[in-house]
Amino acid sequence: MPGKTRRSPADGGDWGDGRLDPADPIDTPADPEAVARLICLRLLTAAPRTRAQLAHALKRRGVPADAAEAVLGRFAEVGLIDDGMFAAAWVESRHYGRGLGRRALAAELGQRGVTQEDIEAAVGQLSAETERATALALVERKIASTAGQPYHARVRKLVGMLARKGYPAGLAYGVVREVLDRTGVDRTGQDSSGAAIDDEALAFDDDEPAAD
Asked: What are the boundaries of each domain within the chain?
């Protein structure tokens, strides 16, 4: 029978809640630290993990807190756990692979137990210009699917797509209007039926959850 394919965390293939592969049981040694080392090594072999994710996995497996902390500390000392590096790689993968904006990336890293300092350093890799360029590319790929719809409906759909990916309202709205202008769409406030467009109706909740 073919072996199980292990996917990277950015592909959604990791056991993000710290669970081990149920098809890969561990022969538990008597020493709690040996158990902790084995669990951590198995998880890190499958995919990169944050310290918080590994700590959660050890707790779920019943490893005593002192043994878990000792092993996690040693792993961090030798570079097997590096939340700063994890965060930087996550931002690189999820921004260029999924088009996520800085707000969404920060939220995902926070959910994985990365400290605010490491989050800010990683997300800071993305300049405002880079984030805007990615937003433009997302809209340009999506705009054809809105052809034939009223102007206000196209704006709503495209701005909503960017909002779900973690882009702020001002950036999203500006990018959408810029791309629509390039297509020759009249932005004077009239849709295809001649009805006025209410800018306030195009606003969206800046705290809307991001999506993949």
From this structure: 9-77, 83-123, 128-202
